[in-house]
Amino acid sequence: MTVLSAYRRSAHALIGAALALAATASIPAGATETIKVVLDQAAITRLPEHVATIVIGNPLIADVTVQPGGVLIVTGKGYGTTNLIALDRAGKVLTERNIEVVGPEGNVVVVYRGVNRESYSCAPECERRITLGDTPEYFNSTLTQAGDRAARAQGQGAAPGQR
């Protein structure tokens, strides 16, 4: 082997190592996948094997339910971004993901009456919708009506005047 061919092999190995390092350096440290979910809706994702503990940074933004087979259901509870960390029994981080909860898209009409806000789902007719940010009186009235209706449907409530 000549000195020149040894030098070329070393240069090729050095260039290959530099390219590999550059490829991994372009991935930000701690980069995580983002799970995007609409407020009051659910998204499904999978967990890695051997998850023992799940931590949600802010449970007011998102909630999770673990199903058999490593299926994770993420429900949007409030607007914003939080994170999910999955740990094994030894406390080792198996995965970390961001959860972004966004507002509903399409068919939602927001009505402002001065500073008071009301939301409606319009598909095809407009009906009251409970949305974070609505005026408390509108929000509570709509929530009470929906709760009363659900209770009656389950046979747990009496009609007004029969209470």
List the helices and strands and how they pair.
Blueprint lengths: L2 H23 L7 E6 L3 E5 L6 E4 L5 E6 L3 E6 L3 E8 L5 E10 L5 E6 L2 E7 L3 E4 L6 H18 L10
Parallel strand pairs: 1-7
Antiparallel strand pairs: 2-5, 3-6, 4-5, 6-7, 8-9, 9-10
Structural features, described:
With 163 residues, the chain is α+β, with helices and mostly antiparallel strands. The protein has 2 domains: 33-102, Immunoglobulin-like (Sandwich); 108-153, no CATH class. 25% of the residues lie in helices and 38% in strands. The chain has 2 helices and 10 strands; from the N terminus they run αββββββββββα. It has helices at residues 3-25, 136-153, and strands at residues 33-38, 42-46, 53-56, 62-67, 71-76, 80-87, 93-102, 108-113, 116-122, 126-129. The strands form 3 sheets. It has a 4-stranded mixed beta sheet with strand order 1-7-6-3, with no helix packed on it. A 3-stranded antiparallel beta sheet has the order 2-5-4, with no helix packed on it. A 3-stranded antiparallel beta sheet has the order 8-9-10.
- Helix content estimate: 25-40%
CATH class categorisation of the largest domain: Mainly Beta
Q: Which CATH-level-2 architecture of the largest domain?
A: Sandwich
Please tell me what the overall shape is: elongated
Count of discrete alpha- or pi-helical segments spanning 4 or more residues: 2
Query: SS-based structural class?
Result: alpha+beta
Strand content: 35-45%
Q: What's this model, at a glance?
A:
By secondary structure, the protein is of the alpha+beta class. It is built from 2 helices and 10 strands.
